[in-house]
Amino acid sequence: MPETTRESLTSGGWKTLPFEPFREDVTIHWIQPFENDQPGVALLKYEAGASVPRHLHMGLETIVVLEGTQSDEAGDYGPGSLVVNRQGTEHSVWSDTGCVVLIQWDRPVKILQEETV
């Protein structure tokens, strides 16, 4: 059995997991935090209208959309979508409807421009 297991994520199993603040209107459930040069793995829950400002990928980022729609400048990604962002790419992310994604980062991203109010 794996060291860390989360069951039934694609059928709503994430709904019973504890989430904590990550960014404004975005919460996180860490499955594997970044430590000792190990990749980070987490669930991110975006409220409707939430966004993450333009950022640079310092390593590979892989996302699976579990619920709702996540968007970036290249398009909209619904449930079951796989999004792979290579090292050196940049984009911003938002969700008009709200969404939950499973995300794996090789390295933390670098925020390029904070949102202004």
Automatic annotation (TrEMBL):
It comes from Rhizobium herbae. InterPro entries: ChrR-like_cupin_dom, RmlC-like_jellyroll, RmlC_Cupin_sf. It comes from the Bacteria. Gene3D superfamilies: Jelly Rolls (2.60.120.10). Residues 15-103 form the ChrR-like cupin domain. This is Anti-sigma factor ChrR (Cupin superfamily).
